[in-house]
Prior knowledge:
Chain A is mainly alpha-helical. Chain A has helices at 2-17, 22-67, 69-91, 94-105, 112-138, 141-150, 154-184, 196-207, 211-241.
Amino acid sequence: MKEWFADLAQQFRLNFITGDRWTWLLDGFKMTLVITFFATLLGIAIGVVIATIRSSYDKNKESMKKKGGFGYRVLSFFNGLCGLYLTVIRGTPVVVQLLIMYFIIFASSTNSTMVAVISFGINSGAYVAEIFRGGIMSVDKGQFEAGRSLGFNYIQTMIYIVIPQMFKIVLPMLCNEFIVLIKETSISGYVGIRDLTKAGDLIRGRTFSAFMPLIAVALIYLAVVIIFTKLVKRLERRLRNSDH
Amino acid sequence: MTTERKALIKVDGLYKFFGDNKVLRGISAEIDKGEVVVVIGPSGSGKSTFLRCLNLLEEPTYGEVWLEDKLVTPVDPYLHPDVIELSKTYQKLAAKYKSEHPGAADEEVKKTVIKEIKDGDLLNEKHEGKAYKSLMKKIYDENYININLARQKVGMVFQQFNLFENLTVLDNITLAPVKLLGMSKADAEKKAAELLERIGLSDKADSYPVQLSGGQKQRIAIVRSLAMDPDVILFDEPTSALDPEMVGEVLDVMKELAKSGMTMVVVTHEMGFAREVGSRVLFMDEGVINEENAPEEFFGNPQSPRLKDFLSKVL
Ligand SMILES: Nc1ncnc2c1ncn2[C@@H]1O[C@H](COP(=O)(O)OP(=O)(O)O)[C@@H](O)[C@H]1O
Ligand SMILES: [Mg+2]
């Protein structure tokens, strides 16, 4: 038993203390958070645009079709584009998307962090768009009609009335998307980024002991996910209990 | 068109189909300034649809809606004989009719062919030629008003209140005047305060809709539409979703509004209200206005069997 502990302590020293290898994990963790954070922001931006286009199309297609004209063609073109985007992104693995981005689309770029942010952002946007669309649809139709009946146009009604109410509904789901992305970015090592997972793997390669670094990486992910999930639960409760 | 149009709201040949469901089947009506028009009828007869066509929350299938001499729907060619006459379809059919009835008078040809076209819905926008198109466009350009502008002058009060859940009572009332009329925030709030005072709800200015009772919500919804200084307010069963003890407070506000000279179109089951403040009552049945009259005649001496039957059930 004593020997076992001594061995463990020695392993710990070898993997984390010697050569300050723990800083690899810290830097990797920071990288993971940076990529996740900016990818989430990008995903929300893309999601808002896609959801707005798709719900305006759904809501206005009947009347616009009848009038015909340029506006309808533009809107249905963009709606088709959004549909294509959703199909492609949700129908292919993230790793493949990341590799295509890195080796084909941004082949000339040396900033792999940015490529990863764009790649995960575009991927996340497809899922966020559907979250927003569900959110918009779950706002009572009467709210929209009341806005229109006062003289607000479609966009104004969305901005002043529907979207603020939608955000309250989707906020917890957006936080969940952040949690999903933290784990999803663990494939960043494929394009040479030293995120948390990659950092653990580098230590393993250096020390030839897999147990310590990989379990440490797993525990860090787990801790972060548990903490954020708790926060989201609390947020959900707050939103539910608040009067408005 | 140079026809004199004086009515505040004029509805002409209004049809509304939802797929195969023909909900409105030809409604024409005029509503003048200061009138309180009450619409009654069995459930499902198309009352809400009629009301919602007036401010284009529903788009009519056929027919035109005019608000204060301005057209809010597209031009309906079937309502304009001069337009029909310019169509290729008319010319083709007229030539055919003339060859089949040599010596037919021009007037007779015109009448028959126009009727044939109307009944068969024979016009096809795309193939009626330049002259037809340009007259359609001319009528439209001369009379058209943007629907969002038109709606600023037409208030609407819903059965389910539809106060904006994300805004306080005060912001519910001031949002539209500030954003749409360019009123300053201070002026809008002053006006809102006066309106809230008028309905005795000054203390609710900072509350959110979820904190209010149904009756309070509906009175505030009325005030919200009043804040835009509308020329007419449409009410769709404003008291139907209320607990019985709250119906009175909402009707009182509406009665006061009627006495102040506001033009109102009210769909309701409150026959007492119709009698007391209605200037005219319409009975809607199966998508048409089956009977209309001043309240005394309407209730005292109903003509159609359908209305008699309906009144015997509700009175
Ligand atoms: N948006 C809609 N889509 C399809 N059918 C509708 C819609 N709105 C109303 N209807 C139908 O139109 C008919 C008349 O409805 P409505 O105008 O609400 O009647 P009322 O207000 O007199 O009870 C009903 O059969 C209803 O199902
Ligand atoms: Mg109704």
